[in-house]
Amino acid sequence: MTVSISWWAIPALITAISFSWAFFTPMKPSSDYGFDIMPLFRLGAALIGSLVAWLVWALIF
Prior knowledge:
Blueprint (H helix, E strand, L loop, with lengths): L8 H16 L13 H23 L1
Helix pairs in contact: 1-2
Protein backbone atom coordinates (compact mmCIF):
# COMPACT_ATOMS: atom_id res chain seq x y z
CA MET A 1 0.00 0.00 0.00
CA THR A 2 1.43 3.35 -0.98
CA VAL A 3 0.68 6.75 0.42
CA SER A 4 -0.08 9.32 -2.24
CA ILE A 5 -0.88 12.97 -1.94
CA SER A 6 -4.24 13.51 -3.54
CA TRP A 7 -6.01 16.63 -4.78
CA TRP A 8 -7.52 17.22 -1.33
CA ALA A 9 -4.07 18.29 -0.13
CA ILE A 10 -4.31 21.61 -2.01
CA PRO A 11 -7.33 23.01 -0.13
CA ALA A 12 -5.97 21.52 3.10
CA LEU A 13 -2.71 23.41 2.53
CA ILE A 14 -4.63 26.61 1.78
CA THR A 15 -6.60 26.12 5.00
CA ALA A 16 -3.46 25.53 7.07
CA ILE A 17 -1.67 28.55 5.60
CA SER A 18 -4.63 30.90 5.99
CA PHE A 19 -5.36 29.94 9.59
CA SER A 20 -1.70 30.06 10.56
CA TRP A 21 -1.58 33.57 9.05
CA ALA A 22 -4.66 34.53 11.08
CA PHE A 23 -3.40 33.15 14.38
CA PHE A 24 0.32 33.91 14.21
CA THR A 25 0.28 37.48 12.90
CA PRO A 26 1.18 39.62 15.92
CA MET A 27 -1.23 42.26 17.09
CA LYS A 28 -0.12 45.85 16.77
CA PRO A 29 -0.41 47.90 19.94
CA SER A 30 -3.33 50.27 19.71
CA SER A 31 -3.24 53.62 21.43
CA ASP A 32 -6.98 54.19 21.52
CA TYR A 33 -9.58 52.74 23.82
CA GLY A 34 -10.99 49.31 23.14
CA PHE A 35 -9.39 46.32 21.52
CA ASP A 36 -7.84 45.64 18.17
CA ILE A 37 -10.46 44.24 15.80
CA MET A 38 -8.04 43.24 13.05
CA PRO A 39 -7.52 39.67 14.40
CA LEU A 40 -11.25 39.10 13.95
CA PHE A 41 -11.05 40.34 10.36
CA ARG A 42 -8.05 38.08 9.69
CA LEU A 43 -9.88 35.10 11.18
CA GLY A 44 -12.94 35.86 9.04
CA ALA A 45 -10.79 36.18 5.92
CA ALA A 46 -9.08 32.87 6.73
CA LEU A 47 -12.43 31.19 7.23
CA ILE A 48 -13.85 32.54 3.97
CA GLY A 49 -10.68 31.64 2.05
CA SER A 50 -10.74 28.14 3.45
CA LEU A 51 -14.39 27.62 2.62
CA VAL A 52 -13.90 28.91 -0.93
CA ALA A 53 -10.94 26.54 -1.43
CA TRP A 54 -12.98 23.55 -0.25
CA LEU A 55 -15.97 24.64 -2.34
CA VAL A 56 -13.86 24.82 -5.48
CA TRP A 57 -12.39 21.40 -4.66
CA ALA A 58 -15.88 19.94 -4.15
CA LEU A 59 -17.19 21.39 -7.38
CA ILE A 60 -14.25 20.16 -9.43
CA PHE A 61 -14.00 16.66 -7.97
